[in-house]
Amino acid sequence: MIRASEESEDKLRRISERRRIPPVPDLRFEYSYTRSISPYVHVERVPAPPSGKGKEKAVDGEEEQDPLAAAVSSGEVIRVDWGQVIWITTKDQIISPLVQGALWGVASHFLRPLGALLGAHVRGWWAKGSRKSGDVPEGNGAHWLRNWIGSILTPAPATGAFHR
């Protein structure tokens, strides 16, 4: 009993190793927008000038600064290239959606009649078909569907040494 479960686990592991699919990419706007503007936003850490507050005298006579006081007193300077950030924001929020909408509008203008034509051909093929006994019309689609279901439900003839 244990051997069968080990074999099945091994088989499942081999199947899962073969079917490695890549992870779903992160397509959220915030991530791609932040990545787009990151070259134009610069953060620089500036240490604060030394002052008498927050310093303690060490035993050996050297001055030692409190780490918390150093973190609070240090600052950051953020430099932003606003022209580039505004251009990227305008491109991502206004221009891209406008162009995509226009392209979909033009494409749908041509694709809608094509879809209707294709649908008419498929409906015509589905309805047109042969006549069975009794003059009952049966379309190609119904004939194909009946044959397909019949091939699934009809058992295959027995072959081999077990049946004589």
From TrEMBL:
<dbReference type="GO" id="GO:0140580">
    <property type="term" value="F:mitochondrion autophagosome adaptor activity"/>
</dbReference>
<feature type="region of interest" description="Disordered">
    <location>
        <begin position="44"/>
        <end position="66"/>
    </location>
</feature>
<dbReference type="InterPro" id="IPR013898">
    <property type="entry name" value="Atg43"/>
</dbReference>
<dbReference type="GO" id="GO:0000423">
    <property type="term" value="P:mitophagy"/>
</dbReference>
<protein>
    <recommendedName>
        <fullName>DUF1770-domain-containing protein</fullName>
    </recommendedName>
</protein>
<dbReference type="Pfam" id="PF08589">
    <property type="entry name" value="ATG43"/>
</dbReference>
